[in-house]
Amino acid sequence: MNTTMWRRVLAPAAVAVALAGAGHAWSQAITMASTTSTEQSGLFGALLPRFRQATGVAVKVVAVGTGQAIDMARRGDADVLFVHDQAAEEKFVADGWALKRYPVMYNDFVLVGPKGDPAGVRGKDIVAALKNVAAANAPFVSRGDKSGTHAAELRYWTQAGLAAAKGSGYRECGCGMGPALNIASSTNAYALADRGTWLSFRNRGDLAIVVEGDTKLFNQYGVMVVNPAKHPHVKAREAQAFVDWIVSPAGQAAIASYRIGGEQLFFPNAAR
C-alpha cells in the first residue's frame, strides 16, 4: 500500500506509526489492560489482527474488570489501558498515570432478567426497575468486581436510594461479565450487562432484556497510554501507535463493522 493510499484511511499520526511499524523499528508486542466486555464480545478478535497488519505490532490483552485494569496500568504492568469508567479514567489521567484520555466508542448497558419478569421491571427506567427488584427481593447477580459495569450498577442503586438495601436476593459473584450471566441464567436472576457481551452470550436460558433505552445506561469507552515518566519500561511509542490507529478512520471503521447476527455491538465516537 503506497503512502497516498495510507493517507486516505489513516489519520496523519497513524500514518507515521504504521510506516515505522512496517520497518520493524519497534518492539513487536505490547500489553493492553482492558475489560472483559471488549474481550468476551469478540471485538478484539476482529480489531487486533487489523492493527497488527497495519503496524507490525502485536497486542497481548489482559481482560479483567475496569478497576483491576486500571490498577494493573498504575503498577506499570500494561502499556495501554482500554476501559469504560469515565470518572475513574479521568482520575487516572489527573493523577499523572497517563497524559491523555481518548474517547473511542460507546454502547449501552441493559438489564436482563427472566422473560416472565416476576419483579415487574420491564421498561426504560433503570432506577425504577432496581426499586422493583429490591422490593420483590428478586434474585440479582452483581459482578462485584470493581469493573466498569459494576461501577455503573452501583451508581444506579445509589440513584434509587438503595445503596445499602438492595433486597435479600442480591448476590455478588466477584467475576467477569460472562460468568455473571451464566449464574443469572442458571438461577433465573436479574443482572446488568453491557450490550456487547449480552449479544455474544449464548447460554441465555430464560433470560431476555427487560430494561433498555434509558439515557443513564450510556456506556463510553476510553483508551490511554501509560505514562512512561511513571514507568520507563512502558512501550509508549507502540502503545501510542495503537491509540492513533483505534481513533483513526481505519480503526473507527473496524469498530463499526463488527457485528453479531447483523447487529452492531459498538459505535465509534473518537471524532465527537
UniProtKB/TrEMBL annotation:
Determine the domain of life of the protein's source.
Answer: Bacteria
Q: Is-annotated flag, keyword Signal?
A: yes
Instruction: Report if keyword Coiled coil is assigned.
Output: no
Q: Which InterPro entries match?
A: ABC-Tungstate_binding (IPR052738), PBP_domain (IPR024370)
Extract the signal peptide range. Answer: 1-27
Q: Keywords on this record? A: Signal
List residues of the PBP domain.
24-249
Gene3D superfamilies reported in the protein's UniProt record: Periplasmic binding protein-like II
Q: What protein name does the entry list?
A: Extracellular solute-binding protein
Q: Which organism is it from?
A: Ramlibacter lithotrophicus
The beginning of the lineage is: Bacteria, Pseudomonadati, Pseudomonadota, Betaproteobacteria, Burkholderiales
